[in-house]
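Message: Just now I want nothing more than another pair of eyes on a protein record. I am handing you a single protein, as its sequence and its fold in token form. As I understand it, each token names a local backbone shape. Take your time, and here it is.
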Amino acid sequence: MSSHDAATDTPVQDPFGTLRRALWIGGGQWAGKSTVARLLACRYGLTAYHYDYHDARAHNDRRIARLVRAGEPFADPDPEDVWVRTTPEEMAAATLAGFPARFAWALDDLRALVSGRPVVAEGWGLRPELVAPVLDSARRMVVMVPTPEFRARQLRELPRAAGLSQRVSNPARAQANRLGRDRLVAEDAVRRAHELGVRVIEVDGSQDAAAVAETVADHFSPHLP
């Protein structure tokens, strides 16, 4: 796999060699990516990068700045439009369309990191087709996705897994739309991973987080300290 940006066919900038040595965990929502990354960071002394944390904070500021420069409106979208007056297919398409720009911001974050050991980066926006240009080996990436049965169990047992952060007129429909979007985005990640020879791990709840982390560590083993 070459170290060229797939969209522009230009070399991927990596001034401190951070991206070359990074390990990547992509995939679906609620697959345990953050937990596994934290466990690997503690066990092997890695530096963990949590995509969702940055995406919801500094990256949102960059999104607004980009809209301002383009002379476009930047008000927060109406929650009803986002969650209720839409379809899972429309939500998934919009999410996938937004990942490339957001990934570029993640690369900016990662380029600035210097660590004596590899960085393990996790998040659903770390898509196989976006990460591929910076990989020198498919063993540097894994895609984790929850099985439908495991996701249903989470909804029953974890209140935070079933909640929305915004009030809407039809919470049930909003939740169904969100779950449908997440399923479609995860399925797309699996398809892309198979095309690129990236390993997919289905998380079904039969193993605890430590056991899943051990499986991921075995996959990463050629590149771990």
Remarks:
- The beta strands are 23-27, 47-50, 119-122, 141-146, 199-203.
- The radius of gyration is 18 Å.
- The longest strand covers residues 141-146.
- The mean pLDDT is 91.
